[in-house]
Amino acid sequence: MKLIKHSLSFSFATFLSRLLGYVRDALIAYYFGVSQITDAFFVAFRLPNTFRRLLGEGGFNAAFVPIYAERVRQGKEREFLSSALGYYLLINLLVVLLGVVFAELLVSLIAPGLRVKPYFDLAVFMGRWVFIYLLFVGLSAFFMALLNTRGVFFVPAFAQAVFNIGFSLVIVLSAHSFGYYALIGGVLIGGFLQFAFHLPFLKDISFGISLKLHPDVKLLFKRLLPALMGFGVAQLSFFIDTFLASFLALGAISYLYYANRIFQLPLGGISVGVANSLLSALSLGEDRSKNLTLAMRFLFLLSFPAMMGIFVFSEQIVRLLYGRGNFLEADVLKVSYVLKAYSLGLVFFSLQKALSSVFFAKGDTLTPMKASFLAIVFEGLSAFVYAFVLKLGVVGLALGTATSSVFSFGYLLRKTYQFVDWQTLMKSVMKVVLAGFLMGLFGIFLKGKIHILIAIPLCALTYFSLLTLMREELLVSFLSLGKGLVKKLLNP
Length: 492
Prior knowledge:
Layout: H1 2-32, H2 36-55, H3 59-74, H4 77-101, H5 103-110, H6 120-130, H7 133-149, H8 154-178, H9 181-198, H10 215-245, H11 252-283, H12 288-322, H13 329-343, H14 346-361, H15 366-389, H16 394-416, H17 422-446, H18 452-469, H19 473-490
């Protein structure tokens, strides 16, 4: 249950961060709506975010955490850590410099359709400035790896919330006076605050900055290349959406962004915490079969009802979150259709993250890369067919993303099925699916009759009540754990 405890800690902090991220996005929607400014900004902001996933919590951490965990066990981590930080910082600075210099080329590569549109120069200008954010967020991701390995999950997960708070304050205080410059300032100030938030919690970790090439850093580089390729392939998913959306009408890029941000709320809150906790547990040598099965049960128990809820209430959710200011009713409807399409891949994306952790924990970064590459091939083909052949437009791009999740999950499952306790897993799956579908039917009945803020808690209560009646073992364990905690609080 230690895995679930760490997962819940990370997931709770991530969920808070996502909620504050919603506040940030709602403010962008309120002040800028769906416009040339938002299309340009979302393309520009994608540049540092993509490299962040490569140089931060994505490829780098997948290669770094198992090596660092081993050195911590041996008490020999200081020299390796100082050397790793030195080279990490050097590479990060180099990437930032290249990003600023070649921003025009990068924007042309990921959104070529923008070159013939009047806001291409604006996207390039924004891209040059917001790329500096990579320096701050890259160091934040490095610190996250250190703290996660030592069992600290809440602090690094909440650091993203600090970014969102800073960004939101800058928009509120300066959007009316400075226009789109407020978006650039929000990224840079928020990024600095996110980086600075980690510093007080690192005082017990001994390290410096060194460019002396430690032998384990050589091993890190050896594992890093396939890890970067794997996560780089995964980032092509975002590039495909942006690439194809740039050829669609004004607003397509913004519709994808707004819908994806809502989709990422349950995905990030549920799967990222479990995946990070699983990676740390497996890297420390804990039972692989037991932890993987537990992680998959936990992910399915939470992601399936989230998928059903998003699909049923998508329009009401988008209207509640964004439907004000310069965000029009037509924008609400368009984003809700895109969100429905995205939601179909939620379960598969969640489970895929857990399966990838099995390979990363044993230093295998090649298998997840192959899974990502397979997903990209199917996403590109299906998104093009849906969007341009079947004329589904921006909705087809999201549907292509959801379709790709099935193939990557299937590939990873084929490689890990022997580590899963299938009897235990399938008993949970059947109960969750039945309870989830009954909850969805109840949600359809409630839709339009009561406010969304009442309907969603009622549906959640119905779902968990049904699982309790079915004696779902994992949920019963949580309830017992909760009762024990309450008793301790009442009788210290």
